[in-house]
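Quick question, first post here. What does this chain look like in 3D?
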Amino acid sequence: MTTQAVFQFEQPIRRPVARATDPETSHEAALSVTLTNVERLQRAIFDILYLRDSMTDEEIFPEARRRLKDWTQVTESGARTRRSELVDMGMVRDSGKRRPTRSGRNAIVWEAV
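> Answer (accepted):
Ran it through. Tokens below.
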């Protein structure tokens, strides 16, 4: 089942970067991420939050994996990074709610703007 995006990006997508102090492998990883993949995951995360209301990062990740089942490169870290970029772009925000994670710690519940 293919799901169409519910929005269009109006702001330019920023290419992933590594900090100058990061190890060489981080720089290699940043270079290996294509803008197409970045935008694809950002779109999936936004759509998930827009269509399913609000979720924690822990809840977003498995849903993103289900939506992008043909794309095995979705990682928890990558999903958090893409969600953070959406926050920076003003498309996702902290809902003000908190929910416990599997470990029992409270997590921010994110929502589409």
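The beta strands are 92-100, 106-112.
The radius of gyration is 14 Å.
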